[in-house]
């Protein structure tokens, strides 16, 4: 493992449109960038057995998740010529319609940015020890399963 | 010996975090068998273990005061 500092990807609560806008504008000074790719995960109001999902409560095994994310970050950085990579994942209760995952990659050209962003999202969903609990309007719950 | 058991996701609904006194259990395979006996729901579920915050990929030796995490399939994002 490299000596780079392990970054914290976790955010308490929803990721706000303001935060995302600021994150985009922070890159205007990096003029070697020619393409950004952004993925945002939003909590869906699924209907399950006649009940609507009101929110998802996220918990994580944070230390393990951050170590794993560090490995993923290093692997994706060495595979694609990226200028920047930002990953933010919510913890706690996120209401339907709010953003719970924000992945942002930038490169000189579009293709590495797009491909790295896709690869990151897939790895985040399959390899990070994070769990979503779907909370229904009547306060009952079921644990989310990734498709 | 005593181990610290922590559980996540669906497993946290029926396995509370606890310090567990175990005898005659030397490795993670033994421990899985033992836990599936005391928590029968576990036997029917898919889960992974982490030993002292490292994902268990193969049977590993357990020592006194080790921390074991029980993790069902991930569902982040």
Automatic annotation (TrEMBL), chain A:
EC number: 2.8.1.12
The UniProt record lists the keyword Zinc: no
Protein family: Belongs to the MoaE family.
Organism: Pedobacter rhodius
Reactions performed catalytically: 2 [molybdopterin-synthase sulfur-carrier protein]-C-terminal-Gly-aminoethanethioate + cyclic pyranopterin phosphate + H2O = molybdopterin + 2 [molybdopterin-synthase sulfur-carrier protein]-C-terminal Gly-Gly + 2 H(+)
Pathway assigned in UniProt: Cofactor biosynthesis; molybdopterin biosynthesis
Domain of life, source organism: Bacteria
Pfam families assigned to the protein according to its UniProt record, in alphabetical order: MoaE (PF02391)
UniProt KW keywords: Molybdenum cofactor biosynthesis
Protein name: Molybdopterin synthase catalytic subunit
Subunit annotation: Heterotetramer of 2 MoaD subunits and 2 MoaE subunits. Also stable as homodimer. The enzyme changes between these two forms during catalysis.
From TrEMBL, chain B:
Family matches, as Gene3D superfamilies: 3.10.20.30
Coiled-coil segments: none
Biological source species: Pedobacter rhodius
InterPro entries noted in UniProt: Beta-grasp_dom_sf (IPR012675), Mopterin_synth/thiamin_S_b (IPR016155), ThiS/MoaD-like (IPR003749)
Name listed for the protein in its UniProt record: MoaD/ThiS family protein
Top-level taxon of the source organism: Bacteria
Upper lineage: Bacteria, Pseudomonadati, Bacteroidota, Sphingobacteriia, Sphingobacteriales
């Amino acid at each position: 493992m490299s000596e780079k500092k392990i970054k914290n990807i976790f955010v308490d609560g929803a990721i706000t449109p303001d935060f995302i806008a600021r994150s985009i504008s922070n890159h205007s000074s990096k003029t070697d960038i020619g393409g950004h790719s952004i993925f945002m995960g939003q909590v869906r109001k699924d209907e399950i057995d006649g009940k609507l999902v009101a929110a998802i409560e996220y918990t994580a095994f944070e230390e393990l998740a951050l170590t794993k994310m560090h490995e993923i970050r290093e692997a994706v950085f060495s595979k694609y010529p990226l200028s920047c990579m930002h990953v933010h994942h919510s913890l706690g209760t996120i209401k339907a319609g709010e953003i719970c995952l924000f992945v942002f990659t930038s490169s000189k050209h579009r293709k590495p940015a797009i491909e790295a962003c896709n690869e990151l999202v897939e790895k985040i969903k399959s390899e990070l020890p994070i769990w979503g609990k779907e909370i229904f309007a009547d306060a009952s719950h079921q644990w989310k399963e990734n498709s | 010996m005593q181990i610290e058991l922590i559980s996540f996701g669906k497993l946290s609904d029926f396995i509370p975090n606890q310090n567990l006194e175990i005898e005659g259990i030397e490795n993670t395979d033994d421990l899985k068998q033992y836990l599936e006996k005391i928590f029968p729901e576990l036997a029917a579920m898919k889960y992974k273990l982490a030993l002292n915050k490292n994902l268990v990929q193969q049977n590993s030796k357990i020592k006194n005061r080790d921390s074991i995490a029980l993790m069902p399939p991930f569902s982040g994002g």
